[in-house]
Amino acid sequence: MIYKSYFFILLFRVFILLAAMSSIAYGLAFQNNYALYGGLLVTIILLYNLYVFVTKRFIEMDDFFESVKYRDFSRWFGEEHGPRDIRQLHKGFNLVNKTFRTINKERQAQFLYLKKILEMVDVGIVAFNVESGDVLWVNDSILDIMDLPSFKNIRFVKKRRPKIYNDLFETYYANHQSVTLELRDESLKVLVSDTVFEVEDNSFKLIVVQNIEDTLNKNESEAWKKLLSVMTHEIMNSIAPISSLSETLQSEIQHKLDDKTNYDLNLEDINAGILSIKKRSEGLMKFAKTYRTLNKVSQVNKSRIFVDELFKTIGDLMLPSLQQSISVEFINTNPKLELNIDVHLIEQVLINLILNARDACLEQENPKIIITAEKLRDTVQIKVIDNGIGIPSELLDTIFVPFFSTKKTGSGIGLSLSKQIMMLHKGRIQIQSEEGTGTAIGLIF
């Protein structure tokens, strides 16, 4: 409709202009000055008017396109005043601006919704420009994983955490891959995946990092329950033949009691049977005690205690049992440092770790055990450090498995029980070891 109105108005002006030019031609042909000068004056006026008419509409459109160029969709074009075709044009402009504003609001709402989701998920996400390193997006989860404040460029990570920078930003992971990140005072197992995508002429890399240590601990706890259930079943299966053998022996003895004259009792068979029952019973008793130790720890009774007090108790208890040649040192630089723990259980963990450290140091020239405590941001860490023989790297992932032991006389229960106790405290137990140099085991509360 607006184009028809514009067309007819323009056609009318052109028609009048042709009439004025015809008047000029008539004045020239018949020497009529009135027609000549009158037509010339009208032609000039009409040309100027036509120029203004056309230019004004182009200016309006140019003004609208300028606002689109700079994404200024807040502007409002007047619809109540001016020529009818311009008012119609303004209505079209306003409708376009309104549509863009609606689209922008929807996009902003979607962006805020996505932003909140990405901030709330327990998965670290970072996207950055591959060439410049400028960060497009980073959420709090990955900042917590890397133990860093918010940053605008990944070069900040390179300066502060070069090892993490190499593991996350320089290494390409085609598929999900488990990676151990070395932080300031601990290591953390994470699952990493990344991808590269193009936006116009820029390349961006998206990295997704998931902390899987808590999940592994939870799965391990469930595995414990299943393991205990299975092993209890195995114990019952072992008791069945003992019961059957006991019943046979009892039957033999009963026959002898019933017929003392004619029934001969084979004492060698009875002795062998009783000996088998005795040996098997002793084995099952030891087996049952071991599993009872694992199964009985199901809850904690926490109380607040100063670390210095905990260290004094452990020192008084352990020092007499350690060899004089082993140097033992407790270090706590903060006398006011406290823990909210089940004291008896954590004492059991520390005793076990110190005894393991003692066994690892026995053959060293200058055996030393150091127990330290320090505050790390929102956590407290107690470390048991020795300069013993260390643990081979291929065994580090298996030392917490129940009944696995590197010692000939070990039961494989100590570290498994220690880890379960730390999990009940909502804490972690981590180990760093180098074969031939020593081992450091950290309890993180």
From TrEMBL:
Name assigned to this protein: histidine kinase
Statement: the UniProt record of this protein carries the keyword 4Fe-4S: no
Pfam (any one): HATPase_c
All copies of domain Histidine kinase, residue ranges: 230-445
UniProt entry keywords in alphabetical sequence: ATP-binding, Kinase, Membrane, Nucleotide-binding, Transferase, Transmembrane, Transmembrane helix, Two-component regulatory system
InterPro entries: HATPase_C_sf, HATPase_dom, His_kinase_dom, Sig_transdc_His_kin-like_C
EC number: 2.7.13.3
Gene Ontology molecular function, alphabetical: kinase activity
First-tier enzyme category under EC: transferase
Domain of life: Bacteria
Transmembrane segments: 7-28, 34-54
Organism for this UniProt entry: Geojedonia litorea
Catalytic reactions of this protein: ATP + protein L-histidine = ADP + protein N-phospho-L-histidine
